[in-house]
Amino acid sequence: MLAGPRGLGKRAFACVLAQGILCRSPQPDGEPCGVCASCHLFESRSHPDFRLVEPADDEPATEPALGGTPGLRGPRVIMVSQVRALADFLAITSHLGGAKVVLIQPADRMHISAANALLKTLEEPMPGTVFLLVADRPHRLPPTVRSRCFRIDFQIPPRDMALDWLAAKRTIDPEVALAQAGFAPLAAERLGQGGYWDRRRALNELLVSPPKDPGDLAAQMDTEEMPTMYHLLYRWCHDLVSARIAGRVRYNPDCAENLLRLADNADVLELDSLAKELIAALRALDHPLNPRLVIEQLAIRYTRMMARQPS
Questions:
Q1: Per-residue burial over 44-69, b = 16 or more CB atoms within 10 Å of its CB, e = otherwise
Q2: Model confidence at 296, in pLDDT bands (50, 70, 90)?
Q3: Band of the pLDDT at 177, cuts 50, 70, 90?
Q4: Mean pLDDT, all residues of the chain
Q5: Which residues pair with 51 in a beta bridge?
Q6: Element holding 17 (H helix, E strand)
Q7: 214: buried, middle or exposed (CB in 10 Å: 19+, 13-18, 0-12)?
Q8: What contacts 287, CB < 8 A, 6 or more positions away?
Q9: Beta bridge partner(s), residue 159
């Protein structure tokens, strides 16, 4: 089990690890050679001894070798039928005479029935078969599954190292990007895709000077991008709480002056309550709620809270 916050490279590592296990001539450090027949099959996404299990096109793929399709969305969980479909693959011997690898990512998005189906396989593993489970939130997996895995934890790298890496990737404003991504460098690099910075800039301008009509604020929040909108608003509210209590911000260092000013007279209990409501909204993203109603309620609470402050 490769565990840790999203954006630290667990999926990329799992992909290289899987290829290295299947490689016929691996390097001394375990890296795949990249030139053998097995590596060519893996890179062409047609290796007969490798299976990838993930929510179908759930999110834009970060590693092309994993076979995701950028920009498409689909089921939000790994279904039991996907795990049961591994039965035939696990029952036969390796096509190339080596190991077989099953990569499940993100494993913490397995439906409970899928996790229970996987448990039966983990209890009686087939010889020569390696399971790689990538988990952003390993605590969501049943303890019975976690206990049968050797866990490797991925840690957030030192800030200076992450900033140097982002600078080498020519990331726009590495310091702000890293803060916005919770200090996960790969997640910070991906923020440059899909107009994230334009949406953040437009929303932050409204949050600094909220309109009198909450509907004007809600109208700027695209219901097609609800995860992004919720996260942006949560990070802003978190920083308001932090600025009010500790005099510092975490996610929006480029807006520190405005956040400190807004937080100076804010009610910390109301801020904390709104932050908790946003957390609840984030957890409910997979449920069939009306996103427009949710965002309108959040906009009403924010504008009313800011309207109580002295100018």
A1: eeebebbbbbbbebbbebbeebbebe
A2: confident
A3: very high
A4: 85
A5: 102
A6: helix 10-22
A7: buried
A8: none
A9: none
Question: 278 in helix, strand or coil?
Answer: helix
CB atoms within 10 A of CB 9: 19
Beta bridge mates, 132: 103
Three-class DSSP labels, 175-213: HHHHHHCCCCHHHHHHCCCCCHHHHHHHHHHHHHCCCCC
State how far Cα 23 lies from the chain centre.
29
> Which of the listed ranges 123-127, 208-212, 231-235, 284-288 does the model predict with the highest average pLDDT?
231-235
What pLDDT shows up at residue 309?
57
Question: What domains, with CATH codes, occur in the chain?
Answer: 2-153 (3.40.50.300), 194-307 (1.20.272.10)
* pLDDT at 64 (0 to 100): 35
Place of tokens 């190991």: 99
- The pLDDT > 90 percentage for the chain reads 52
Mean pLDDT in residue range 277-300:
74
CA pair distance 288, 286, nearest whole angstrom: 7
Q: Indicate the residue type of 212.
A: K
